[in-house]
Design a protein that fits this description.
Strand order of the largest sheet: 4-3-5-6-7
Strand content: 15-25%
Low-confidence stretches: none
Number of helices: 13
CATH class of the largest domain: Alpha Beta
Structural class: alpha/beta
Number of strands: 12
Number of domains: 2
Shape: globular
Helix content: 40-55%
CATH topology of the largest domain: Rossmann fold
């Protein structure tokens, strides 16, 4: 049994098992669980519209879910900050079903968003890491995680389990809407079931490499995290993890927006972290990848310091950047779960480089219970 200096590192390493437990709640062998499907029938999407309300890391998983549910299910999805949604006035002529996301299930502004949706008569679904939480009990349907207790304030295993459950929700809805046949469904299930073992096999290598990179980049004043499509959500999450864990400023942007202003910041003291993975079986992913390669070429000419996260063995990316972190190949919609874990580790080691109590960053609490 390994000894861990901090709960955050322990919880990063607990992610394979947390994912296995969570998948077991929703899958029966290589099939969807019919009892879960029956529960989800209580959460209809009559207009084909979903509104996701969440804050912090949960909102970033919601941004990933927007892509998942639109691409795999053909639904129309909006993602709102809970703190903004619950304060909006005026009449909303739309009537979307509402999905609330929260690690604790007690986040006050997300509870307020849930209450607003219920008062309007909208159907609600809660995804939380606490099956007995207020949010889980008040929503029409609950899809709990099985991440286990998360003691460190920075969310790690609860975030990856959220991504997994949102992926599974897309499978359930894809089948219900006739967007996914049995062969495609089984392929998706087999791949997500293989993810815990894949993560477990890569953790030690990521840990060693990210410790080295944190030491190499510990003098940076700001980081810009870049991603396209579903990977933008992970850029946002990586930047948030760095801020809350190490107090180093970071921002997440869509990669294509770098040259619309933020590039003015790029210098030796402002490195880039670029998500440059690809799913070769998906044309749109290849297109995004090629655009990212061109951006990396431009950044190399500009002299930028770049850390890239890329597919294992991708020499083309490696030749264009200062440092390359590899993840094993996966489908476009599961790559985010792999990508975020080395970024969690980078945040952890950056915190150590700066002498921060990584489990208890200043001014933060595990659940925001006051607006």
């Amino acid at each position: 049994m390994q000894n861990y200096a901090h709960e955050m590192l322990r919880e990063i390493y607990e992610q394979p098992e947390a994912l296995r437990r969570t998948l077991a709640l929703y899958l029966t062998g290589k099939s969807l669980n019919p009892e879960v499907a029956a529960r989800l029938a209580v959460w209809p999407i009559p207009e084909g519209e979903i509104l996701i309300a969440a804050s912090g890391s949960s909102r970033h998983s919601g941004l990933a879910a927007e892509i998942l549910l639109e691409d795999l299910c053909g639904l129309a999805v909006d993602v709102e900050y809970s703190s903004e949604y619950c304060c909006r006035g005026g009449e909303d002529l739309r009537h979307p079903s509402v999905l609330v996301l929260s690690q604790s299930g007690e986040t006050s502004d997300t509870l307020a968003a849930l209450d607003a949706a219920r008062r309007r008569g909208q159907k609600t679904l809660a995804i939380t890491n606490a099956a007995a939480s207020t949010m889980a009990c008040e929503a029409d349907v609950s899809m709990p995680l099985a991440a286990g207790v998360e003691k460190a304030i920075p969310a790690t295993k609860s975030f990856t389990c959220q991504l997994a459950v949102l992926y599974l929700l897309a499978l359930y809805e894809g089948v219900r809407l006739g967007r996914m046949n049995s062969v495609a469904l089984e392929g998706h299930i087999v791949e997500i079931q293989s993810l815990p073992d894949s993560i477990g096999a890569q953790l030690d290598g990521w840990r060693e490499q990210m410790a080295v990179l944190a030491n190499r980049y510990n003098s940076a004043a700001t980081f810009l995290y870049l991603g396209r499509g579903i990977h933008y959500a992970i850029a946002r999450e990586g930047a948030l993890k760095l801020k809350e864990s190490s107090y180093v400023h970071a921002e997440g942007y869509p990669a294509g927006e770098l040259k619309h202003g933020p590039n003015a910041l790029v210098s030796d003291s402002v490195p880039l972290v670029v998500l440059a993975t690809v799913d070769r079986n998906l044309e749109a992913s290849v297109t995004r990848y090629e655009k990212t390669l061109q951006l990396l070429r431009d950044m190399k000419v500009q002299g930028a310091r770049v850390i890239a996260v890329a597919n294992a063995g991708d020499k083309e990316v490696a030749e264009l950047v200062s440092d390359c972190v590899y993840v094993k190949s996966a489908s476009e919609y599961l790559l985010p779960i792999l990508e975020v874990i080395p970024l969690q580790l980078f945040s952890y080691f950056m915190a150590l480089e700066h002498g921060i109590d990584v489990d208890r960053p200043r001014n933060l609490s595990k659940s925001v219970v006051e607006i």
